[in-house]
Every structure is written in C-alpha cells, then in structure tokens.
Amino acid sequence: MAAVEAEIVPALVADSAPVSDPAGAAQTMVAPSVAGAAAAAVAAAARTGSEAKVSKAALATKLLSLSGVFAVHKPKGPTSAELLNRLKEKLLAEAGMPSSEWSKRKKQTLKIGHGGTLDSAARGVLVVGIGRGTKMLTSMLSGSKRYVAIGELGKATDTLDSTGRVTEEKPYDKITQEDIEGILQKFTGNIMQVPPLYSALKKDGQRLSTLMKRGEAVEAKPARLVTVYSISLQKFQPPLFTLDVECGGGFYIRSLVNDIGKELASCASVLELTRTKQGPFTLEEHALPEDKWTIDDIAQSLEHCTSLLPDELALKKSKPDEPSDQVLSCEYITLNETKGENDIVETL
C-alpha cells in the first residue's frame, strides 16, 4: 500500500504548483490538504485489509485448535454425510479458507466426522467429532440412543419407512391401544432382529441400500442380537402410533415398527423418526442448530460438553495439540460405530 500512496500524493501536489493570481494561492493551500486526506484514506484501507487478514488468520488458528465432540441438530432432508459437508464448508468459509483452497493444500488437515448416521428422512441429534475428537467417537458412542418414532399401521414399504414404495396394505381397524401395549414386552431386552434391506450394512464392500437402488438382488442379513432398554407407547390415534424407544447399538427402529405390525396381524412402517438422545447428548440441550455452526459457538459447545464425557476421554481431550504454523486444509471422515465386515455406522 505504501507504493500506492507514493503514486497518489505527488500527483495531487503537482497540481498545486503556485500561480500569480490569489485564486491559485488558495488552490496551493487546499491541494495538500486533499492529498493528505487521500493518503490517510488509503492508509486506513490498508489497515482495514490487514486487520481482516489477521482476523481470518486468528479464526483459522482457532478452528485448527478445536478438539472434542459436540452435537448438531440434523433436519429432515439431507443425509448425515451431506450435513457434515455443509458444516465443514461453513467453518472453512468463516476461517477464510474456501474448499477450492483447502483441496490444494495438504500440509495440515482439519479432521471432522460424525459418529452415527441418521437417514435423510430422520431428524435429531448427530454427534460430531473434530480434531482429536474424531478418535473419541467410537468408544464414546457405544452407549444407548433414544428415539421417538411415529409408526403407521396398515401400510408396509420396501424401505420400512415413508420414503419407500408401498408393498403391502392390511386392515388395522380392530387394533387397540391395549393390543399394542400388550406386545411391547416382546421387543424389550436382548432380542433377535433382522436388519432392513435398505441399510448401511454392506455386501462385498457396498451398502445394501445402494445395491437395492440399482435393482440388484439382495438377500436379507441374518437376525442378530440387539438390545432394547425401554419401549413405551406415547400416543395411539389410528392408524398412527408413537413410540419412545431407548436402545443399544446396531438396532433398527424401522425393523422394530415393521415387526410390531406383523405381530398385530397387520403391517406397519415408520412415518416420522427423531433421535432425541445419543450418548450423553440430548436434542433439547446440546444439539446446535445450523445458525450456531460458527467457530465460536462450537468452541463454547466443546467446552460445555467436556463435562459430559467419561473422565478417561476428557483427559485425552485436554492434552494440547502439537503447535504448527502450517497451512489449513481439510478432510472429513465418518467413523463407524461398530467395527466389522458389516461396517455399521448407526441404527434406524
């Protein structure tokens, strides 16, 4: 900016060369003043630009220092991966590092991932790990999850929810609230459950849902042992019924609703699904809405959520990151909740 000032100021002074008439003298007095104002304006602009760069650099440094786990509120519509990508883009943009830049720079990475997939039709708590927090997701999220599910009697779909193609319809008019409450005990405790065909489970390295969408023949996975800690009927207004379910990992709410329909000599599918709790994170208290996806808000959330973690994980988080002045780049990863050939990420 100094070179720019040097070009502007002499030009203004040259125009103020003295002449014989008094008016010229007046111009001689005014022009330097104008030149000074112009120089001051340029200097101020230079300072503003410099301050903006410093601010972005500080935000980038703060972004790289974030480490731990927090929760965001996933709405219906996007997949969990799409939502994570949106979060990543917002943080990078705030730090002055758009994706076109970080994709070219691999000296230092911002790691960010989620620890449990929610289908696009579902909403609720999605736990996110950032920095070293990505390594905490698997061990921390092995606890229970809680869901509120609205099931619809008399209708079955190929996906077991409202997004699929209707495959069967049966009467439900004779089913009562007592009938539903009477069978819930059968779905409590350690039970055997067949996962849905449209799921994140894999065959030959590809998700079953992907194979199904291609029209390929897919065999159902065998029933496996899962755990339901509690299940209760919250509301019954035929054909709709609302369940509150607390379960362990690997459990599918869609399969539960489908099995309940069969047990009632009818059929059923999931109309609405909300995850209200994952690990210690609840939808009401901890899940950040999208307007809170800022570096400062996430930093505050990480600090608040530290108290929710088991001591051994909190101690890991408190270890300082290695200092680095390398360039910011970014990658995101999705950690699997359960390791194994099925590559289970989360349960629906």
TrEMBL record:
Record's keyword terms, sorted: Acetylation, Cytoplasm, Isomerase, mRNA processing, Nucleus, tRNA processing
A molecular-function term among this protein's GO annotations: tRNA pseudouridine(55) synthase activity
Domain of life, per lineage: Eukaryota
Keyword Cytoplasm: yes
Domain named Pseudouridine synthase II N-terminal: residues: 104-253
Alphabetized CDD domains for the sequence: PseudoU_synth_TruB_4
Gene Ontology annotations for the cellular component aspect, listed alphabetically: cytosol; nucleus
InterPro entries documented for this protein: PsdUridine_synth_cat_dom_sf, PsdUridine_synth_N, tRNA_psdUridine_synth_TruB
Localization: Cytoplasm, Cytosol; Nucleus
Functional note: Pseudouridine synthase that catalyzes pseudouridylation of mRNAs and tRNAs. Mediates pseudouridylation of mRNAs with the consensus sequence 5'-GUUCNANNC-3', harboring a stem-loop structure. Constitutes the major pseudouridine synthase acting on mRNAs. Also catalyzes pseudouridylation of some tRNAs, including synthesis of pseudouridine(55) from uracil-55, in the psi GC loop of a subset of tRNAs. Promotes the processing of pri-let-7 microRNAs (pri-miRNAs) independently of its RNA pseudouridylate synthase activity.
Entry protein name: Pseudouridylate synthase TRUB1
UniProt source species: Nannospalax galili
